[in-house]
Specification:
This protein has about 325 residues and is mainly α. The chain is about 80% helix and about 0% strand.
Length: about 325
Amino acid sequence: MSSSPAIGLSSETVNWEQRLWLHGLVASLFWAATAAVTLVLPDVVPWGSAGFFAGLAAATAALLFLAGVAGKSAGLIKGRLLRAGPWLVALGIWFFLWELFTAKFGWLPKPFFSPPQGLLNVYVEDGPRLLICIAYTLRLWALGFFSGIAVGYAVGIALGWSARFSYWGMPLLKLIGPVPASAWIPVTFYFFPTTFAASIFIVALSAGIPVAILTSSGVSSVNTAYYDVARTLGAKTSYLIRNIAIPASLPHVFVGLFMGLYYSFAVLVVAEMLGAKYGLGWYIQFQTAYSAYANVYATLVIMALICAGLVKLLFVLRARLMKWQSGFIK
């Protein structure tokens, strides 16, 4: 008889633990602390948008608290949001320490470091120009990346399919591949009529080489038994390439695409140095010359988010094109 209350209390405790979203509650605590520190403690130097950042942090803390209290019981917290719980806690801790070490204590001083409200103030004050730079950068990247992977894909198929083409082409590709794309800038000035065309070539080269190499590897690694079976059934060369070589090489092709995507973003800053008047790379160079490192960091965040979004789209495309490998590729 005396043990029943303890059992009831234990089951009630377990029930509350199952209903509460603990990560959300802990995250709300650190986000609230970030808002309080931003508003209460004075800044070492003025940064701007402190109240705006504090309001965003407080709103995030309130939402996380409400989700932590009622999320699981209401069925609101599940799937990706539930898995993001530890990251929300880590971000709350990161912003709290970031705010203290930069804006409040000055241990990471201006202009080399910026607090979060400093980056936010860049978006508030210089937002229109950043939007123009984003549009210019995406135009340059799209033209360079897609032209590069188109040529690289065609060259890769030819290298993997034709032994004669591979004999002459692969040594050249191995010779050009290790050389950074930015090293070809002097050559581009001679062969291209405009600096914009030269910038497109630099981006295309950085994206096309990994696609060509990986596509060639994928085509050449296809089991020759598949070709033999198709030939006995009367398949022609075009059919073998289109229906056997290309589908079988897709895993290698997507590895090349991922590599080309990262390489193309890495050279954007260099490519936009060639006489560009707008663009995120140009903006970074311009602000660095004036030691406006808060603007530089804010731009790097934008570039990282754009690249992450493109990588996500590439993952979605890979999942759709290679459903037949869903049991092997996670």
